[in-house]
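Why do we bother with holo predictions? Because pocket geometry can differ from the apo form. Keep that in mind while you read this record for coenzyme A.
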Amino acid sequence: MSRLSFTTFVCDCSLQQGFGCAILVVDMDIEIIHENKKRFLDLLLLADESEAMIDKYLERGEMFALYDDGLKSICVVTGESPDTCELKNIATYEKWHGMGYGSRLIQYISEFYKGKYRSMIVGTGDVPSGRCFYEKNGFSLSHRISNFFTDNYDHPMFEDGIQLVDMIYLKKEL
Ligand SMILES: CC(C)(COP(=O)(O)OP(=O)(O)OC[C@H]1O[C@@H](n2cnc3c(N)ncnc32)[C@H](O)[C@@H]1OP(=O)(O)O)[C@@H](O)C(=O)NCCC(=O)NCCS
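The structure, written out:
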């Protein structure tokens, strides 16, 4: 198990007293998880509702867990070719959405894989929230697989009230 600590600055608006946000100095840890990855299944299922699909990439993938006074987020990255790795799963506990943990993980893995791969891809449903999250973190639209969700799942899937039809891939040069 590798554990790396770093200090970051967090804007905590709950502490504001009419003068804008308070800046807190927070120590976070990102751990690379080598064993017993299934113990994070509750988080993995937030991003991928099919345990059977998760099983296809979990063991061959590298898993990263972000701790900040307890577990907050995880992600899994696989090597797909000598040049390209893929972010297969990223999730933050719902209570902690919007606090920057997902973006911090993406910054971390982008640095981690720089020099090992030329680019990182990620596939997601074509909904604005997911797309914005990745674009905010340096990804841009690469290609689209038409009807992926309607062809591969036996029931309609929805995110943010929108039915998922196409899978979009976004790409980031490392
Ligand atoms: C997508 C996800 C990992 C982002 O994690 P996070 O720790 O909230 O990430 P950050 O705080 O760094 O960024 C939040 C941004 O994510 C975007 N976002 C995407 N889905 C979101 C959701 N369900 N809730 C809140 N924000 C979401 C928002 O645009 C937000 O942008 P903003 O900060 O400009 O408002 C998290 O929302 C999540 O776990 N979602 C469920 C699992 C999932 O669907 N994963 C695959 C994503 S396509």
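Confidence is low (pLDDT under 50) at residues 10-24.
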